[in-house]
Amino acid sequence: MNKIDDYVSEVLLHIRADRQVKHRIREDLIASLNERIAYESNREVDDVIFSLGTPAEMAEEYMANLDTSTALPKFAKAVYEKSPYFEYRSKASLCGVPWVHVKTRRWYGNRPGVARGIIAIGDVSIGCISLGGLALGGICLGGVSAGLCSFGGVAIAALLAAGGVAVGAAAIGGVSIGLIAMGGVALGQVAIGGVAVGKLTHELNSPVPPHGHLHGN
Asked: Distances from the Cα of 175 to the Cαs of 114, 147, 152, 170, in angstroms?
């Protein structure tokens, strides 16, 4: 365990609540501690943790707020207000992964916010459905996206890719590379575009071949 885990585990020993509530408190406290340490990067981790009080004092603050579903200790609220990131994490999760996780930086110059969830939205997003500047996962939409199906400025996909530059089994874009490629410049086994390079090709500015067949190279 690292120092944060040790501290959080000590806090939980002083909290009287069921497993589900303790799990939520653990996630809230770890996220808040990491945000505070990132925000106060000039301080040692031990100093940041020491400033919060003893585990018993932190547990007492949580216990006082357990009657509200959105309770956070005072220091966590203060950190959120000063945090360089906007973050939302759904309480519902699947195998420990939140259904929805949103994390974006409030100001440029800070490290990108990384979102991980079934649905992930962030500066960098990783999820089954992923939206972000850099999007990774299943169905991805972003400036740069890579996954099963990807859409974006630069799109890389195992199945379908569509974007300014698209690379995938089926690719559609300004520049497209794939088994089946369509675009301004298309490279593939089957290529259709302004400039088409491949085994079977058709250039859009050329007349349609008889019977609709593609040219074989």
From this structure: 29, 18, 12, 12
